[in-house]
Amino acid sequence: MTGYFVRRFLLIIPTFIGITLLVFAITRVVPGGPIERMMTQIQLGGETGSLHRSQGGGTLSDEQMEELKRYYGFDKPMLSSYAIWLKKVLQFDLGHSTRYQDPVWEIIKERFPISIFYGLSTLVLTYAVCIPLGLAKGMYHGSTLDSWSSAVVFLGYALPSYVIGIALISLFAGYWDMFPLGGFVSDNYEEFSAWGKAKDIFSHAVLPLIAYLAGSFAVTTLMMKNSLMDNLSADYMRTAAAKGLSRSESVRKHALRNSLIPVATSFGSNISLLLGGSFLIETIFNIDGIGLLGYEAIIERDYPIVMGILVISSLLYLLGNILSDICVALVDPRIRFGGGRGA
Amino acid sequence: MSLLSIQNLSVSILGDDGIARELVSSISFDIAAGETLGLVGESGCGKSLTAMSILDLLPKPQASRSNGKVLFKGEDIGSTNQTRLRQIRGKNIAVIFQDPMTALNPVQSVAQQIGEVLRIHFPEQSRQQHGQRILELLREVGIPAPEARLSAYPHQLSGGMRQRVMIAMALACEPDLLIADEPTTALDVTIQSQIVRLLKGLQAKNGMAMLFITHDLALVSQVSDHIAVMYAGKIAEYGKARDVFATPHHPYTQSLLAALPGIHHQAKSPLLALEGQVPAIENMPSGCRFANRCRYVAELCHNKTPLAEHISETNTVACHRWKEIRS
User: Contacts from B309-317 at CB under 8 Å and sequence distance 24+?
Assistant: First the structure.
């Protein structure tokens, strides 16, 4: 089995190269790169008079163009500039943002705490709600609780998160003024006591978290419920009763653990949620997270940032998948990878 | 006093339309300590429901005991509380199920699953004592290299081995009564005879009684002291195994035995089969449930339910015309 996971880890390398090469190639072929952007900016800036016009309607001389291309690495063929980029990445250098001129890593790092705060809260709250709710629904299938929670969960699943976000803002921040309109913390955050800071973060987080979570309950809750119901009706539950276990004991010791297997295995792939963050929700609530950064970077053709976010999120995703497999192997003795023995 | 006494037991099934219908209808039988009762009948006749209702293991709410008493050593366990019932389950009365593939928890090891019974009923014993006992049990049920099997999971064992694990689990507390619900149906023939031999051997050694449920007539004749033949939720004939096989009195038993191909059966000659079908539960006849397939059917059979009549001191038959048929 160790061999299997070593192979899986080694496979990250070609997969990673594939993902980044593809996106790198796209950034090369789509029109409107950073140089074009800069040129339009200069054109619109009104300072064009001092520069003598070059051919092709541009405002820069050919030498200046060449210099810019060299500066951004556009002067070399795609593959060799990809190789240069990859080499830098391996030295933990993600380059500089074409928009802010700051190192990409610094820009992303700034947003980390915000994104991790929301990602982690979403992850923890999803499991904290879905597992007990799914269990209760499975145990009392067809009850009022079951029907009503299904209605609520599916409503949240059906409504797009930005609709929920806007509705929440208009109601609780506009109409009733219970929560702040947006942002991660208040402007005068630094003046608060520790307790005040915590309260401030919390009050800013309530609405966006609800918007994030509303759609995420349905899948895991229903997975938990169905899995528990499958196990409750399994033959070995009758065996457990015939041994002399009470209903609650047999549920806890047999059905519960077995029904957690599919939920546990989805945990690994949810790790990538940690840095996800929807740019829609971040835009609505004016949160400076990775989602918004990535969106703006694409719109502004800030390719180093696009590639930087891609590097981090694809690595997380690939590691999450392996983590999923490790989870499966840990909780289910029937699963043995690579050995060829067992079922 | 008999060890287990079932009196007028009825089990009802809840249909999709919400109506509860009696599938097993007021049946009675006794099992004496140390003896084996074979409960025979075709699929769907209510054998397993009868057996499961003894320990209240019916799949609820679809099936439930609607009437009757279950007396175990004189104690009415049919109406006792759940706490008492749990003490009896696994300790005094143990069960082996039909399909060892699904009756074992797939993610727990053999030692865990057998150990659980011991933990429930002998919590005062130490882990070491339990470990010793598990090994001893595995050895008793003929599992080779039991030390190596302790940490095995069900999927790593063959069907026969799994059934042996089930048996070890059932025997862990040395029960007075073992309910074996078609323990060999899911196994192939050679393993079947091994398991039956094992059960007989263990029964003789531990002196336990057994309720052996099967649809295999040949098997039941090997195993049982007494036989109860069930048809459509009622006991058609009950008696000493030898008597029932030698001189069946109920027309159903007669047809069953006639349908059994003997070793001298001519190759390619047609097999005898019973005409017709078991009445559906929605329209059970008010009279004898076998009437529509019976060669000896008379007017009376359609109108009146036959009650069990004594043929001899021990044997009974539920047929209006058994005396006429015999002659």
Answer: B311/B239, B311/B249, B312/B239, B312/B243, B314/B226, B314/B239, B314/B240, B315/B237, B315/B238, B315/B239, B315/B240, B315/B243, B315/B244, B315/B249, B316/B235, B316/B237, B316/B238, B316/B239, B317/B236, B317/B237, B317/B238, B317/B239, B317/B249, B317/B250
